[in-house]
Amino acid sequence: MLLLLIQFSSAMYEPKYQLTNRMVMNLVKLEVEKSMIEQNQTTLQSKTNMQTRAKSINMFHMAHIIGVELTLKDAEKAAEGRKIRTDDARGIILNNYRNTLEFVRSNVTDTYIDIDINIMLHLNKILLTDWKESWESKFRTGGEDIDVILDNWVSLRDQRIEPIRVQDELLQALDWYKSSISKVHNIIRIGILIYRLVRISPFIVANKLTIIAIADFLLQKNGYIERSFLPATRNFDVYEDEYREAWTQAIEHNEDVTLWLERFIRNLAGDMADVREVIGKNTQAETKSSRQPFLDLNKRQLKILRYLQTIPTVKREDYVQMMDVSTMTAYRDLDSLVAKKLLKVDGKGRGTRYMLYHR
């Protein structure tokens, strides 16, 4: 069947985009930030902490994507392997997503493993484990209705693509992705393949979640995650609205993906810069802590300051759960940070939130 599809796939997919100055500028920024992170002389413990941080952020943002309120402490525990329980299937989905991340981290460094339709199907199958029937983990071939639960990207699919042509369209996109390796920057290739997957919507269930997992795979495979600690899931959560706007514009302008690529590259470069800043502050804090306490802050306070470089705000009850302390200890810790003008307060009573002072 696969050989038949390959023979049928005669026309090569050709994306439409312009290489703009904005793209080039942000590609340079991305590569420079990545290089600086990789050259940073961090301790083994610091690297382990950054890997844990990236896993936790991935889980936190995937929870937000599927509508689960997860505290930072719970996200950290989930990243370490604790099962998330909810009153519906979303807890299973979160646990499955962690498993996809672990599969990618443990297998993608193998030189012989690269993106193909089998890898895509495997990621989809992991995500559907104990959530959907095993037979639902497959490409659309005709007659099946797409399950739109947790899948708001499906509305962007190209309805001109008949189900019987789905795998052929995938093969064409993959052929372009692999054949352009020596001619097109990796991030552009990744961005174009992501857009094409959104337009094809190849799966019966969980197109959006699987595409995000595939994006993580592609970024890991091309060296943008393992040594730079980039939490790729955050990108698709934080910037979803502007991505959907860019995809809609591409559809309206004859599939020209220039705007989407500009935004995707810009945001990745910004995220990479944020990671480098966190590493720099951690390294500085480690150096200072070896000589003297940093502003007389305890480990809990230092930890929440690091988290707030990524997460906009935190409530006192979040701090209690995160640090496993009493309400009074949380109050003293946070009030001390406010007094030192490291944090500021927004709201009153139970709605009180804390954020970085200069944010």
Quote the beta fraction.
under 5%
How far is the first residue's CA from the last residue's CA?
A: 56 Å
Number of domains: 2
Q: Tell me which CATH architecture of the largest domain applies here.
A: Orthogonal Bundle
Number of strands: 3
The tally of helices reads 15
Which regions have little confidence, pLDDT < 50, spanning 5+ residues?
1-10
Spell out the helices and strands N to C: HHHHHHHHHHHHHEHHEE
**If strands are numbered along the chain, what order do they take across the biggest sheet?**
1-3-2
Output the CATH topology of the largest domain.
Fic-like fold
Oligomer: single chain
Structural class: mainly alpha
Major pleated sheet = 3 strands, antiparallel
The general outline is globular
Rounded radius of gyration (Å): 22 Å
- What integer is the average pLDDT? 89
CATH superfamily of the largest domain: Fido-like domain
- Helical content band: 55-70%
Q: For this structure, what is the CATH class of the largest domain? A: Mainly Alpha
What does this structure look like?
The structure is a single chain. This protein has 359 residues and is mainly alpha-helical. It has two domains: 2-279, Fic-like fold; 298-356, Arc Repressor Mutant, subunit A, CATH 1.10.10.10. The protein has helices at residues 2-8, 21-39, 44-65, 72-80, 90-107, 117-128, 166-179, 186-200, 207-221, 232-238, 240-252, 258-291, 299-307, 316-323, 327-339; strands at residues 314-315, 343-346, 353-356. Strands 1-3-2 form a three-stranded antiparallel sheet. Helix 5 (90-107) runs antiparallel to helix 6 (117-128), helix 6 packs across helix 9 and helix 11 packs antiparallel against helix 12. The protein is globular and about 65 Å long. The model is unreliable at 1-10 (pLDDT under 50).
